[in-house]
Amino acid sequence: MQRLLVTGGAGFIGSNFVHHVVENTDHHVTVLDALTYAGNRASLDGLPADRVTFVHGDITDAELVDTLFADADAVVHYAAESHNDNSLHSPRPFLDTNIVGTYTLLEAARKHDRRFHHISTDEVYGDLELDDPERFTENTPYNPSSPYSSTKAGSDLLVRAWVRSFGVQATISNCSNNYGPYQHVEKFIPRQITNVIRGIRPKLYGAGENVRDWIHANDHSSAVLTILDKGRIGETYLIGADGERNNKDVVELILEQMGQPRYAYDHVTDRAGHDLRYAIDSTKLRTELGWTPQYADFESGLAATIDWYKANEAWWAPSKDATEAFYATKGQ
Ligand code: NAD
Ligand code: DAU
Fold first, then answer.
1. What is the per-residue DSSP string for 244-276?
2. Integer distance in angstroms from the first to the last C-alpha of the chain?
3. 114 contacts: CB under 8 Å, gap ≥ 6
4. What is the spatial distance between Cα 135 and Cα 238, in angstroms, rounded to a whole number?
């Protein structure tokens, strides 16, 4: 049994990870989360109190972080400002949480000599042409496009520096686009599902040719547990499940699965600097650490996600109107 400290554990991927840890290990989890607009305490409802402790606090609070690291064996760092569109109109919180927050955690990891796993994104590598036969690997040069992805790239580089300069026992993973339950309605898939439930037409940025490499959040969680268990200190591992699809196909699939005509969506203003394509080569994680994804069928994973949003309107409804009002101001 390990004592895990999970930052951002009330967010989308962090909460899926906490559920996964409780179901698949005997570890105890302490969640540290600031409950920003993206955090939701209800995402941890139903978890046993003797396995999960919730601490409401900020990762930039060095005193609090120091206390929590003293009582942890290992730390998994999910907390971040995570939405590209928000970073385009209000970048400052991205610098505070993604850069200063990660720095604060690294200093505590160094002081207490704790195992530290940093959760990052494939967006640090920029984007690919649609016809590029290459995919991102651990050796692809960093080339982030947005304020969000540049702050994630900066946080990755801080982790690498703390490993090399101070011997911090850290690993990094860069994962592709996740889908599944507990994702905020600002994000592409939940936004379109909840639009259809509300009778609003789905909104596609630009022509919808942009490709994302979809992975189920549970596969991300199992990969992170594998890296915590077997990953080599100082190494980076890319996480992906060979799930490339363009946005137009995903919107049409959502409409079809929800019993609507496939064409019943609107094209809206494109995202500034919109990355064209992400694609992950996860050979290193699969061959060196023996990880394989379990949710290979995107269509059935998407159908289960639609069912989850239909059954959990009380979870997402409080955020829906404000999210759509914000998008409306941007013509999206
Ligand atoms: P999210 O926005 O759903 O959740 C972020 C969580 O962090 C929220 O609970 C929020 O309250 C918390 N948080 C934010 N600032 C904080 C602070 N200063 N102190 C403490 N807690 C704070 O994000 P997500 O989509 O779950 O992403 C989690 C991590 O995974 C991020 O680091 C993101 O870069 C990375 N990632 C996401 C994806 C994806 O597809 N969503 C893919 C690859 C990597
Ligand atoms: O690749 C990993 C990244 O995936 C993570 O690092 C980010 O935290 C996560 O938010 C996600 O970033 P994206 O920008 O790819 O995700 P988003 O859900 O915002 O958008 C997915 C695609 O859908 C993107 O091409 C933009 C498009 N889109 C998005 C919205 C919200 C639309 O066409 N319509 C929409 O309404």
1. EEEHHHHHHHHHHHTTS-TT--EEEPPPTT---
2. 47
3. 69, 72, 73, 74, 75, 108, 169
4. 11
Q: Name the CA dihedral angle for 51, 184, 85, 8, rounded to a multiple of 10 degrees.
A: -10
Distance 253 CA to ligand 1 centre (A): 26
Q: At what angle do helices 298-311 and 188-198 cross, to 10 degrees?
A: 50
Ligand closest in space to the Cα of 178: 1
This prediction's pTM: 0.99
φ, ψ at 98 (rounded to 5°)? -75, -35
- Nearest CA among 3, 48, 60 for reference residue 23: 48
Tally of CB atoms within 10 A around 173: 24
Catalytic hit among 33, 81, 85, 122? 122
Outline where the chain has alpha helix (H).
Answer: 12-24, 62-70, 84-89, 92-94, 102-112, 147-166, 188-198, 217-230, 247-257, 283-289, 298-311, 313-329
178-179/215-216 β-pairing: parallel
Nearest CA-CA partner of 73 in 25, 23, 116: 116
- CB-based contact 201:265 (threshold 8 Å): yes
For residue 261, report the phi and psi dihedrals to the nearest 5 degrees.
Answer: -65, 140
77 Cα nearest atom in ligand 1: 32
Return the closest-CA partner of residue 307 out of 268, 258, 264.
258
Burial class (CB in 10 A: 0-12, 13-18, 19+), 234: middle
107 is catalytic: no
pLDDT digits (tens, 9 = 90+) for 24-63: 999 999 999 999 999 999 999 999 999 999 999 999 999 9
- 37 catalytically annotated: no
pLDDT tens column, 174-224: 999 999 999 999 999 999 999 999 999 999 999 999 999 999 999 999 999
- Is the dihedral angle over the CA atoms 9, 15, 16, 20 positive or is it negative? positive
